[in-house]
């Protein structure tokens, strides 16, 4: 059995830790996101593996990201990956496709939020907008 298949079977969602995010979008409106908080190394490694979808305003928060990459192998739906600096300013938004190419965080990234693909376009969330974590 491939590692991805094993991880899919072992992944338990939702993760036990939660964070509420508010994104101040380009219109000045607040967009709330209920996030599972990928806190442990195992949670960070599995991310959305094992999930067939996320609710409309749900996501996964990854903090303290390392200068590595995010893989899409085994992921079942498109994701918007929102990379932010240490002040919460959005540095880049990358839409990743299921089983697509690896995604590399931009320089200066401190945390990443993964939401459904198209979420940022639908909510007018762009580079330069700010994310607040509570």
TrEMBL record:
Pfam families linked: DUF192 (PF02643)
Name listed for the protein in its UniProt record: DUF192 domain-containing protein
Lineage, top ranks: unclassified sequences, metagenomes, ecological metagenomes
